[in-house]
Design goal:
This protein is of the alpha/beta class. The chain contains 18 helices and 15 strands.
Length: 414
């Protein structure tokens, strides 16, 4: 085990806050300890926002520490209010059950799931659902001060909007109890997560201390460690595209679109992503970004895509991008949309603006027309110069390639 794992993680940008930095550093650099990361299955896939903490999870596993991946089948029924101006849309129990299994499957692409030190995957519904409301409030709720909770950013923002519910107030209690449960039953001493989870992580550590005092037993070690949120150099959340969130599941985001997203990030974000999602030495990353930024972006996009979708799919995506950029080759790996007769509504042609929306290249017709006016759209080898330009149904039988900007390609066929 490396004696400078903590310093290495900090150098690469993984560490943002720790409840007790010196103790956490000694813990990570020392003998194996058990840690956990929680993910709420509020959707049926993972998105780029989960990457950071999952990569930290794997690094800690590789350093010899024992990792618990908690999929929140119970907490997802409420939804974390952190960062939300409105209450999260409630999802059904059936949706949560489906999402739990999908998230477990996708998370195994990131963490070590086999071998001598596999991740332990648990579901907090297994211990929360059987806990009676009265007992939970008597055992856990008594240790939470409402004034302190309302001062937390997650609740303060929702309170300012005038819509904080008692349901949401329960979220922090449940996540805090998860830490206590895992500490007692698995010897878990460290919780990791994004910096937006800081309030919930601290609440868990404090609950453990208060319960120990109430029970008259010696306080167990329970610490927290967060990573920064993954944002661009101008402070925007990474992973938001014109057509929505960048997902891990290829049914939601094609492998090519996934690769292209990373290849098209700003030059100044490339070094950060190479530090986080590759094992290239930091001095080599600095040198590469300084002397060959396009090569650095290709390497970064390939490595992130390989991490999520495997080397074969990453290679296909990269080959497609190169062939399109160099020669405009009609490659079979290009994202495509197949239209049906119903899309035409009895017409023999469709405006290009409509096609851009159907293909997901623009979120609305207004945005599609703006792209056309700005000269950012081509059909085949010709730039679309008029917002009224349309493509005939018969021309789509062999497929037409729409191009947005210089690097985004999409084939449309019947």
């Amino acid at each position: 085990m490396s004696k400078n794992t903590f310093e290495s993680l900090k150098e690469r940008g993984y560490i943002y806050q720790a409840t007790h930095e010196e103790e956490v550093k000694n813990m990570i650099n020392g003998e194996p300890v058990t840690f956990y990361l929680g993910i709420d299955p509020t959707a049926d896939s993972l998105h780029i926002g989960h990457f950071f903490a999952l990569m930290l999870f794997r690094h800690l596993q590789e350093a010899g520490h024992r990792g618990i991946l908690l999929v929140g089948g119970a907490t997802a029924m409420i939804g974390d209010p952190t960062g939300k101006s409105d209450m999260r849309k409630m999802i059904t129990k059936e949706e949560v059950l489906r999402n739990v299994e999908e998230v477990k499957t996708l998370a195994k692409r990131f963490v070590i799931a086999g071998g001598d030190n596999p991740a332990i995957i648990v579901n907090n519904a297994d211990w929360t659902n059987s806990y009676s409301y009265i007992d939970f409030m008597r055992d856990v709720g008594i240790h939470f001060n409402i004034n302190v909770m309302l001062a937390a950013e997650a609740y303060a923002n929702r309170l300012a909007e005038g819509g904080l519910t008692f349901l949401e107030m329960g979220y922090m209690l449940m996540q805090a109890y998860d830490f206590v449960y895992l500490n007692k039953n698995y010897g878990c001493k460290l919780q990791i997560g994004g910096s937006d989870q800081w309030g919930n992580i601290v609440a868990g550590s404090n609950l453990g201390r208060k319960l120990s005092l109430a029970e008259g037993v010696e306080k167990d070690e329970m610490y927290g460690l967060t990573n920064p949120l993954l944002v661009t150099s101008d402070g925007k959340k990474m992973g938001k595209t014109e057509t929505g969130t960048l997902w891990v599941a290829r049914e939601k985001t094609t492998v090519f679109d996934f690769y292209q997203y990373f290849y098209n990030v700003k030059d100044e974000d490339t070094e950060t992503l190479l530090r986080l999602f590759t094992r290239v030495e930091t001095d080599k990353i600095v040198e590469l970004c300084k002397n060959d930024i396009m090569g650095a972006k290709r390497l970064m996009a390939f490595e992130v895509t390989k991490l999520v979708h495997g080397e074969n799919e990453a290679q296909k995506a990269q080959d497609t991008a190169i062939s399109l950029f160099v020669s405009g080759t009609n490659d079979s790996n290009m994202p495509q949309t197949k239209l049906s007769e119903s899309d035409f509504g009895g017409r023999e042609e469709l405006p290009v603006a409509d096609l851009l929306v159907l293909c997901g290249l623009a979120p609305s017709k207004a945005e599609a027309k703006r792209l056309i006016v700005q000269g950012g759209i081509s059909a085949g080898d010709e730039k679309v110069a008029d917002v009224g330009c349309a493509i005939a149904k018969k021309d789509l039988e062999n497929g037409v390639i729409l191009k947005k900007g210089k690097k985004v390609f999409h084939r449309v066929t019947m």
